[in-house]
Amino acid sequence: MPTEPDILRALAAVRDPDLHRDIVALGFIKDLAVAGGVVSFRVELTTPACPVKDQLKEEAERAVAALPGVTRVVVTMDAKVSGPDPASRKGMLPGVRHIVPVASGKGGVGKSTVSANLAVALARSGARVGLLDLDVYGPSIPAIMGIVEPPQVAGDRLVPVVAHGVTVMSMAFFMKPDEATIWRGPMLHKVVEQFLTQVEWGELDYLLVDFPPGTGDIQLSLCQMMPLTGAAIVSTPQDVALNVASKAITMFERLRTPVLGLIENMSYFICPHCDQREDIFGHGGARAAAAARNLPFLGEIPLATPVRQSGDAGVPMTAAAPETPLAKAFYGAARALAAQVSIRTAAGADPAIAVTF
After folding, report:
1. Could you give the CA distance from residue 332 to residue 298 in angstroms, rounded to a whole number?
2. Are 49 and 171 within one domain?
3. CA-CA distance, 226 to 219, in Å (whole number)?
4. Is 297 helix (H, G, I), strand (E, B) or coil?
């Protein structure tokens, strides 16, 4: 019969392609047991949205099944999001492990739609997810998420609304529908501070923050107030949008916030009547910009009427039709984003793990 060291040596041949280490060295193997010819163990990944989860499971099963005397391999896939201890933040988002702003250099690129669908995709993958809408001059997350009731108050704390498995807080909850936001910087700073310190977020793996577009004082203040894991940049393919997106990238880099990658929204259009593809805004610009800056490219999202319709109906595409190609584009981007968070976290905890793209 195979021994535990035999099995661990076999599993050491299975490498995580993102973290560039084998799954034994990474500490992924848990609860290893041998009963006769049956070997069972649990693989604990760094995120439930791991893009290579199925691949690692198949490779682990194959490696152990090849050992003499093994008649059956039982692999359970699990995940525990790693990261800095949230309690170290001294009252600011004490239960949140990773804070990831979703930003853009300009408005009109679909950043809020992307933010909402990323959040739902991560939540449906099994992660604990929050979505903070700080797009102060045009908060639209409640409408996209189908939220009509305001948050509740418990003592001196705000209790966020939960929609589609995502914990949500937004500036829109405190504004009249037709009211314009005419606030000076100190007022905005105070509201944001309350969102970070007086909201009952609970235990979250990821808090996605829908940032206001641009690179002005508001964005700088937000970056300085929050302990950010890294940022995702949303852009459309054309040169004008990419030129502006590059300013957002530069802003995060100057603030020493890692850019986790670029997402190309409205990447292409496929006619629903003739299936002909049209690159309305060009195509591939964000991928090329990511390569030029040595940044990850997280995915491309098509321009499609159902995405707009689902957002207008208050049910993001990733919840309305998760098996469709449109939804799968968002799911792919969410998995790529989660992978980059894991890579950055692992590289910070273990210098032997290189951050490569």
Report:
1. 8
2. no
3. 11
4. strand
Owning domain of residue 68: 4-79
Q: Which of 142, 109, 131 is nearest to 248 (CA)?
A: 109
Instruction: Specify whether 127 is located in the same domain as 268.
Output: yes
Q: Do 164 and 33 fall within a single domain?
A: no
Burial 185-218 (b: 16+ CB within 10 A, else e): eeebbeebeebbeebbbeebbbbbbbbbbbbeeb
**Across 127-133, average pLDDT:** 96
Q: Is 113 among the domain residues?
A: yes
pLDDT at 356 over 50: no
pLDDT recorded at residue 184: 62
Domain boundary among 28, 46, 79: 79
Type of residue numbered 199: V
- pTM for the predicted model, two decimal places: 0.91
Alpha-carbon distance of 272 to 302, in angstroms, equals 12
Cα of 230 vs its chain's centroid, Å: 10
